[in-house]
Write a structure and sequence with these properties.
The chain is mostly beta strands and 123 residues long. The protein has no helices and eleven strands.
């Protein structure tokens, strides 16, 4: 079982920066690919960024060049560094992770989701 807890959200002015963190905890698990998604009111949840088990990254066109996804494998923590924030970035941000357990014979076929953290970009 894996629990994901996001932190770092809050109110920031347009053009500002914010760093989100997602801490994974539990036992008998191995993390694999990890993602950041976001959902604004009235919108569908969208994939913002992904980092693979090997460290390769992918970004949505809307955040490319402004957001950076990274991870600390020792701390089991995922990060999203957000720069040049725009009002359109306002949303609840969720982290997710593919993971494996001994029950899955260490196949990364399970997924965990955090509860989300709210980012509001406004002057």
């Amino acid at each position: 079982q894996v629990q994901l807890v996001e932190s770092g959200g809050g109110l920031v002015q347009p053009g500002g920066s914010l760093r989100l963190s997602c801490a994974a905890s539990g036992s008998d698990f191995r993390l694999n690919n990890m993602d950041w998604h976001r959902q604004a009111p009235g919108n569908e949840r969208e994939l913002v960024a992904r980092i693979t088990n090997d460290g390769n990254t992918n970004y949505a066109d809307s955040v490319k060049g402004r957001f950076t996804i990274s991870k600390d494998k020792v701390k089991n923590t995922l990060y999203l560094q957000m720069k040049n924030l725009e009002p359109e970035d306002t949303a609840v941000y969720y982290c997710s992770a593919d993971f494996a357990t001994s029950a899955t014979k260490w196949r990364p076929i399970l997924r965990a989701w955090g509860q989300g953290t709210l980012v509001t970009v406004s002057s």
